[in-house]
Amino acid sequence: MKRRKIAAAVLLFAISAAGASGCQSSQETFGEKVYAGVTCYDQSDTFVSELLDCFKEELESYGGDTLEVNVTVRDAAGSQRTQNDQVKELLDGGCNVLCVNLVDRADPSEIIDLAREQEVPVIFFNREPVAEDMLQWDRIYYVGADAKQSGVMQGELAADVIQGDSSIDRNRDGKIQYVVLEGEAGHQDAIIRTENAVDTLRKKGIQLEKLSYGIANWNRAQAQTRMMQIISEHPNKIELVLANNDDMALGALDAYEKLNVTESALPVFFGIDGTEVGLEAVADSRLSGTVYNDKEGQGEAMAKLAVSLITGKGMEDMEFEKERYVYLPYSKVTSENVSEFIRKREP
Ligand code: GAL
Ligand code: CA
Predict the structure, then answer these.
(1) What residue ranges line ligand 1, CB within 6 angstroms?
(2) Does CATH place domain 148-292 in 3.30.420.40?
């Protein structure tokens, strides 16, 4: 994305002088500096790492003659305590905006306190703090998506596929035997996605029979393990797999592959995210559908918000809900429109 660039020699000089003195407050120079300190709950999470790539790219695109941009990313690797320490370090290092993907979405207080002491605004993303915590300070924001919408869309995708192909009801009992693979217990995107996907299928008139479920923490390998167990408990019975994300849908598929189940005996699989591997799997029909979690939109909103918070410009263009939330819409992805989403990734 092209940003306005003012190439005044005097500004250039001021910025290079400021650059030499490290991360100083913007008042001391003509140029301004955005130094974003980012910490994520687990960098091995496929969706989060793709989202971070989008964010970095977006934020860097704001850099130019009048604005210096710097991003530092830390991986909390599943520990809230580690994440709190990382926030301290980032603040000590001079970051002037924090982007936090909480490990424990119910435990942001220490981070909020640290940020407030230094008056550094916080953009929480992807793991939504509870509403009361968002009221702890007026310089905290959230960027993410509406979990309910993704569940409804997954249910609609599955209903369309099931209604369009009677062979999915393999035992012909008029019901769809299904299993659910869920993300972390306590994550806003886990239970809400599951409930809404199942409710939507029911509302569309599909008779369902739940065989089992497994919690696999968004993780492909864990989903494979859980699915191997579930398959052995219900051999040849499963007709539908609803997974809270693509990685777990693919882990379920891995389980069948490992068991050498032939294609005609496979259930249908649905994910959410539209990660690179997820989209490829939709393109070659291993997944029957996914729901696009708009990482480009989220990364863009985070970058724009970070820049606005520092420069004081552009805040009026942000589309907030409840004053400090930005929710990007999901979209349905099938083999028919998947190429549009694959293209979206390309520069
Ligand atoms: C969800 C996403 C999952 C996982 C999770 C981590 O929005 O669908 O794949 O990344 O966030 O918080
Ligand atoms: Ca059936």
Answers:
(1) 45, 47-48, 126-127, 183, 187, 189, 218, 245, 272-273, 293
(2) no
